[in-house]
Amino acid sequence: MDEYEYLENLSDPRTISFIEKENKETESKLGKRAKKLYPILLEMDKEPYVLNMFAYDEENPAILLYGEKSKLVLGNNTIYTPPEGYVASEIWKVYNSKEIGVSIERKGSDKIITLLISPEGKIRELGEMIESPFYFKGELCYIKSFRYSPPPDGGDYPADRVFCKDEIVYGKDMKPGEFVTIKVFDDFLTLVRQKGWRYGELYIGEGFDSLRKVDEGEVIDVVDFQQGEVIYQKNNAVYLGNRKIVEVDYPVLGVSHIGDKIAVEVIKEYRTPLFFYDIKGKRIGEEVHDNVMFMDGKGQTLFLVETSFNYKFRVVKKSDGERGEVLMQYGNYDVTVKDLYVKGDVLLHGFLVSKVNNPKGVIVYGYGGFRIPLLPSLTSVMRVLLDEGYSILITNLRGGYENGEEWHKAGMLLNKKNVFKDFAEFLSLVKLMGGKAVAMGGSNGGLLVGATVNEYPGLIDCAVIGHPVLDMLRYDKLYVGKYWVEEYGDPNDPKYREYLLSYSPYHNLKKGLPKTFVYTGINDDRVHPAHALKYVAKSKSLGNDVMLFVNDSGHSIADPESKAREESYVVSFIEECLR
């Protein structure tokens, strides 16, 4: 029996009272400093930042900018800004149309509303939880995500269904946690049925009733359609039809087709250079980049959005034979970056970012899951901490994608504890050098910090856990947790249950843990706030020094005010803890 299970009900008066009490207590301890930090962080969070980009045509990229307000920019024109109280969280390339899809949400909630926007700014609302709108044979189609209730065909959820003319045309046999991506080329369909974050099946056809599976494997993504053949990526290779035309020795993050060339973004030495090939697969060039976040081609033009430790973003347009035209850029940071290598069970890499020689402490930041690589970039919190005299150590752990799919698999399912070992190696390095170590992570990174705190408390001076997954026996029952079964393992399967229990941060709490700050958002409908609430309640009952802040935000993109408020408490806690 879990005595804190009532905290999973956010409408329970006891839960409301608990949140109010904890927020009041945190305000009394950190509020004064947080108020001073808030305008600094708010100014940073109002700076422009690219959330997404795709090639609209050969001259213009469609760009979703976040900052003081989120907005859809096409060329030099802002064609859409969400209404008050909403932020735009995603844009969609609408195949066989000049329209652009835009998804908006409140306070970072995953409960999106999707719109169709014409280049002139005309708006048509499609509805809730609709993704990837496209036209096929003259009909408007889209993917609808059923995350919080069963689909109309009575299947289990969370699940995707594909609709055309408001009728389900694909997905009735899909299992909970599976999802699809669709790209359309005139009257030709390509569909990838994804099982978790790493395995997919590629289907092609001239209609949903004639789709046939042509390939399956790890990391499949359709790139283009040329002369009756599909160009697609599978793991670290590019295929044209059934022929492998490119294979590289590095993890591939993305592929674009431009003219008679193929651009391949890879991870090499923890940066993302571009390799260029002709259509037959002959290597014809390489470009150095720190971190290409988005890449998309149209005709002879390639558009890039890149970031670094030294600037916030840069949008570049590259036409055939040109070095590149910078369309938009922002930020210039004077920091020192060192590549660190640590020998644990495997050779590990991290970025040590500093502005001073003798830091007050080192914020050791990690994630380690879902194939997500940590590459050169700085958040607002990191910039403020650097200005305040701390160093940031960004760690590349197993479970990510920095060294490919095998690196990911080495930190998932029954290998998950490898990630905590890797993180501990970096914390140990900081302590051996006489530094103070702050373990920091959010979402899956919150799981990382929570598990490491339990297992290696002596290596951590302070812990920061954001929007975390912490109850590994009930994560699949809270909101969209079933999507993560392929990554963590099913708690209802004896094969995984005992292993999950052995490291679950919530279940392995004990006395004498380092000072910890936990934060979440009441509108977070991806990772249920109960993970954070239950963890804090139980940890406090054991006598640990733990603080909680429950924001009015969701899991990810929120308005700058909510984001800055959350961040101001994070920085205040670190300063107070290491004082």
UniProtKB/TrEMBL annotation:
Enzyme class: hydrolase
Domain of life: Archaea
Keywords noted in UniProt: Hydrolase
Pfam families: Peptidase_S9
Molecular function GO labels: oligopeptidase activity; serine-type endopeptidase activity
One GO cellular component term noted in the UniProt record for this chain: cytosol
Keyword Flavoprotein included in the entry's annotation: no
Location of the Peptidase S9 prolyl oligopeptidase catalytic domain: 378-578
Key word Oxidoreductase present: no
Reactions catalysed according to its record: Hydrolysis of Pro-|-Xaa >> Ala-|-Xaa in oligopeptides
A single BP term in Gene Ontology: proteolysis
Gene3D superfamilies: alpha/beta hydrolase
The enzyme's E.C. designation: 3.4.21.26
PANTHER family named among the record's database cross-references: PROLYL ENDOPEPTIDASE
Protein name per its UniProtKB record: prolyl oligopeptidase
Organism field: Sulfurisphaera ohwakuensis
